[in-house]
Specification:
The complex is a heterodimer of chains A (416) and B (420). Helix content of chain A is 78%, strand content 0%. In chain B, the strands form five sheets. In chain B, strands 2, 3, 4, 5, 6, 7, 8 and 9 form an eight-stranded mixed β-sheet that branches. A four-stranded antiparallel β-sheet of chain B has the order 1-12-13-14. A four-stranded mixed β-sheet of chain B has the order 11-10-16-15. Chain B starts with 5 loop residues before the first strand and ends in a 5-residue tail after the last helix. In chain B, a hairpin with a 4-residue loop joins strand 10 and strand 11. The chains are: A mainly alpha (416), B alpha+beta (420). At the A-B interface, helix 5 of A face loops of B.
């Protein structure tokens, strides 16, 4: 193949990997990185490297499955492990993703409040527009919207550069792991992995690869798309940590939310940095609020054998449309209701995500090693070692996270 | 006869299998399915005991039902089983798989399989593709039923008969089941209508689009009015006109009357003028009157035609007309003066004039007669068709018995229709 043909092929299959990985940096992801930067400066930057490796390995695996089998992950789980497993997994995902949607709409509300808009206006406006986009719009319109919106993530890179960090310490912190026996440090490093590798992404990526009709012959180009996507997502994460680590950490400003970071940037880095940070958060939150409920509706319908698709109407695909509509409606209500237990809801959601993730990964590894299904495209041995290793580490870490969610080892932030 | 009546596969999977002494031999894991006539049947059961698999032939089964599964064999005489790709296993190869049409588009998933005792075999009669099947698999079918009863609704049954599901290859090995295109056109149009109404709307339209015009026309008239309107609306006017033209005018009028006026007009413009006029004339009548159900295709000859001449003309006219049991006799003004049947004509001499054998004491109705009154007349006088005349005695059309039956008793496909 000539260099040109290779390039054309890459552009043809490009998309699923880059979009999935980008949207992975949703409100909760940005919150985690901002808090990590503000609290520990560059101290947690090194976790991005192993996380990126794990992300690449896992995403590459499900993408390969999508290209070889032409089916989504929930399709395969239902077909190979029966309805019970599929059903309970989907139920878990539904609840977890509802929580994620709450987090995203809360992120949207908070960023809008920084820009001076009331959440009581902006939540209905935001929820209604994303609802209309999907229920009334076509697939092409949605895809175009997503691709353009993905560009806005580079706002974080700009804000990172505007912060003028000292690159020496940044590089050292990135390359040299530092371990600290501090409960908050441990919880945050787990949270970074947890927010980067999520169950919904695996389903979303595999489905979009399958739906795009990428063949196994074109898979090499698709792999590049996935790897680039994973790199971009962690580069964005890197710049968020760098921004907060440079500007907020030296002043000892404690934040709990991404929006607080944007607000705190104003006196330190000026109007523009704050504005860019807030706008990027608004964009990321809204994207998450579109994709997460959409993805949820897709897998559930796939697994249950119900009609699904953005191009369909309520009458044609009732379950699909109702799952999407109710997720957005309930999440908006939760954000708007004064005194709604938002924090517990988001904690619950991350706990369920943590509980579902190992199962999703284990089934994915078992399926990708099924020779009947994958033929010569099963995992090579070295690959399996990394994949299983990742799963074991994730199980260990999420178990730890879940336990600490119920029995906090120490009040967060109380150890220093 | 180990199986009487019917059961779902999920009712028996994982149940204990007993030997003649009443001891548990193992648990039912799967069933081997082979091609049967007319439906696939269970050839053997696969039983798991202490992690080992055993195969028990269907002939060795004593009882096979929801409550008890037992075999004549004792533990020592059962044969071990090696899972093989050559066998078609109901749980492994059919359950949870998608049913797709020949183009590979997704339709539904197999949530459960319905078995029925038939001549000593357990045959696969249908697949459950609905919510009820999902609930049953999760073990909450009964509970959900009770729960829904509180709200005055019930769980619908969504079954697709195995008649419409054929595996792609004779070896019954493929993951996806399919309704192969060739098979579809060989089915009776009423059965095609039933399939179309059972699959999702999009797939139904898709399936319909691939039928040849003649089959499509016949299948279309078997569908529910809303479904007819949906399918026709989704089509190009030209293609829709081709199909509607193929239908008898009364059915064509029924279909068009359910469409938005604009769409109906557009389609009528594509239809041949003569045919379109017939349809338009019928569209003028109220739906539940004689005029609304009649067709204006009938056979009418002058009284002085001989039997031989009439047969000669019938050979050409009879081909195009759906209901041709009676020959009507009309005078020069086209007023109805008599009727005779094909039977009478066959029994008469070829040189006889129609006026000599025709019945003149006619039972007729006017276009505004209520359809039930027309039905009563047809039933009372044992007619195959009833002529419709205007107040001056001009013949307008006939009501055929099959159209009356459709009104009184909806066709099977329309009664049983369920949405997936």
């Amino acid at each position: 193949m000539t260099r040109w043909r290779r390039l054309i092929l890459f552009f043809a299959v490009m998309g699923p990997g880059i979009i999935t990985a980008n949207i992975d940096n949703d409100a909760s992801g940005i919150t985690t990185y901002s808090v990590a930067g503000a609290r520990f400066g560059y101290g947690l930057l090194w976790t991005l490297i192993p996380t990126t490796v794990a992300l690449v390995v896992i995403q590459e695996m499900v993408a390969r499955m999508g290209a070889v089998t032409g089916k989504g992950l929930s399709d395969l789980i239902r077909e190979h492990y029966g309805i019970k497993i599929a059903f309970y997994m989907m139920l878990g995902l539904l609840i977890a993703n509802l929580g994620t949607t709450v987090a995203n709409l809360a992120g949207w509300a908070a960023s809008m409040e920084i820009l001076g808009f009331s959440k009581y206006i902006m939540i209905p406006v935001g929820a209604l527009s994303i609802w209309i986009l999907v229920t009334k719009g076509s697939y092409r319109a949605v895809e175009r919207f997503l691709l353009i919106a993905c560009l806005l993530y580079f706002g974080y890179v700009i804000s990172g550069l505007m912060a003028r960090p000292e690159w020496g310490p940044v590089l050292t912190s990135t390359l040299v792991p530092q371990l600290r026996w501090d409960s908050e440090y441990i919880v945050l490093s787990i949270a970074i992995i947890g927010t980067t590798i999520t169950p919904w992404m695996q389903f979303y990526l595999q489905s979009s690869i399958a739906e795009k009709g990428i063949k196994k012959e074109d898979y090499a180009a698709s792999r590049l798309d996935v790897v680039i996507g994973c790199l971009i997502t962690d580069i964005i994460s890197f710049f968020i940590i760098v921004t907060c680590g440079t500007l907020l950490f030296p002043h000892g400003i404690r934040i709990n939310e991404a929006a607080e970071a944007a607000a705190a940037l104003k006196p330190l880095a000026g109007e523009y940095a704050s504005l860019i940070f807030a706008l990027s958060l608004a964009n990321a939150s809204l994207l998450g609020a579109i994709i997460v409920p959409l993805a949820t509706a897709y897998y559930i319908c796939e697994a249950m054998g119900w009609e699904a698709g953005i191009n369909k109407t309520f009458k044609e695909a009732p379950q699909f449309m109702w799952i999407y509509t109710l997720t957005i409606a309930l999440a908006s209500l939760a954000v708007l209701l004064p005194g709604a237990p938002l924090v517990s809801l988001m904690v619950l959601s991350s706990v369920i995500n943590g509980l579902v993730l190992p199962f999703v990964l284990i089934y994915a590894i078992l399926l990708v090693n099924n020779e009947k299904l994958m033929g010569e495209y099963v995992n090579p041995r070295s690959y399996n070692a990394i994949a299983w290793g990742t799963v074991i580490v994730i199980i260990g870490l999420t178990a730890f996270l879940v336990v600490t969610a119920f029995f906090p080892i120490a009040p967060i932030g109380g150890s220093t | 006869m180990p199986l009487f009546g019917e059961l779902f596969l999920s009712d028996v999977i994982k149940q204990s299998v007993f030997d003649p002494k009443g001891e548990i031999m193992g648990r039912l894991r799967d069933t081997i399915v082979i091609k049967g006539d007319p439906l696939p049947k269970v050839a053997a059961l696969i039983v798991e005991r202490k992690k080992e698999l055993y195969r028990i032939e269907w002939e060795s089964m004593n009882i096979f039902n929801r409550r008890i599964i037992s075999t004549y064999l004792d533990m020592d005489s059962v044969k071990p089983y090696e899972r093989s790709e050559e066998d078609l296993l109901a749980v492994r190869d059919i359950l949870d798989k998608q049913i797709v049409d020949a183009n590979g588009a997704k339709v539904v998933r197999v949530n459960d399989i319905k078995l029925e005792g038939y001549e000593g075999d357990a045959v696969l009669v249908a697949v459950d593709v609905g919510m009820r099947g999902i609930m049953r698999r999760l073990g909450v079918e009964h509970g959900s039923e009770e729960f829904l009863r509180l709200f005055g609704t019930s769980l619908p049954y969504n079954l697709i008969s195995w008649n419409y599901l054929q595996p792609l290859k004779p070896k019954l090995k493929t993951i996806s089941l399919t309704v192969p295109r060739q098979m579809v056109s060989e089915l009776h149009p009423a059965d095609i209508a039933e399939i179309i109404s059972q699959v999702s709307r999009e797939e139904g339209t898709h399936l319909f689009r691939d039928l040849d015009i003649e089959t499509a026309a016949e299948a279309l008239s078997e569908l529910k009015p809303e479904m007819q309107a949906e399918i026709i609306t989704a089509m190009e006017p030209g293609k829709a006109a081709d199909i509607i033209e193929e239908m008898p005018p009364d059915e064509a009028a029924d279909v068009l009357s359910d469409l938005p006026t604009e769409k109906a007009k557009e389609i009528l413009e594509h239809i041949e003028r003569e045919e379109a006029e017939d349809i338009q004339e019928l569209l003028g009548h109220e739906e539940d009157t004689a005029g609304g159900i009649m067709t204006n295709e009938f056979i009418a000859y002058p009284p002085d035609a001989s039997i031989a001449e009439a047969f000669e003309r019938f050979k050409k006219d009879g081909e195009e007309i759906e209901s041709a049991y009676y020959i009507y006799i009309i005078d020069e003004e086209e007023k109805l003066i008599g009727v005779t049947s094909l039977r009478e004509m066959l029994l008469a001499e070829p040189t006889t004039r129609l006026s000599e054998i025709m019945e003149t004491k006619l039972k007729t109705v006017t276009p505004d007669t209520d359809e039930m009154v027309a039905a009563e007349i047809i039933s009372k006088y044992n007619l195959f068709a009833l002529p419709v005349v205007d107040s001056e005695g001009f013949m307008l059309g006939i009501i055929a018995t099959d159209d009356i039956i459709d009104r009184i008793l909806p066709p099977a496909a329309k009664r049983k229709r369920r949405r997936v």
